[in-house]
Amino acid sequence: MTWTEACNDPSLNDLPYKIELDAHGRLVMVRRQIAHCRLKGRLGRAMSRAGMGNGLCISCPIQTSVGVLVADLAWHDAEWFDNEADDCVCAVAPAICIDIGALIADEAGLDDRLRGYFQAGAKKVWICDEMGKIAFYRSPMVKLGRSLRIPKFPSAL
Prior knowledge:
Blueprint: H1 3-8, E1 17-22, E2 27-31, H2 34-49, E3 56-64, E4 67-75, H3 78-84, E5 96-100, H4 107-119, E6 124-128, E7 134-139, E8 142-144
Parallel strand pairs: 5-6
Antiparallel strand pairs: 1-2, 1-4, 3-4, 4-5, 6-7, 7-8
């Protein structure tokens, strides 16, 4: 299955899951929880307060080497948006991809997501755990204690 096929399949419209595709085109569904939704909202508000509101994208589908990943939040500049705005799935990742870590099952899943986002062109990846603590990555192997791009961005919500 391709991402376009998944987007056009009416049977997938109202599922209470976050849907992604793995590297083999198989649907991956992850249940949504209220805590996850609250963290997504808190992260979005924090990004807006930090001056990142204009480039904020919610539930951004990105074609990666590990399949189509849907970043819970993403930030991009105007040039990126001009190039990607009409597509069903992003061919190039936004500058910052953000996931709520409670949905990442294990360390191998985290490694795959980091690798996928960075190989697709992300400059930074932020992972927020279920307690609101944020890990900032500048590569799959380099984890930072704070955002270098926005030093005043909180490391916990």
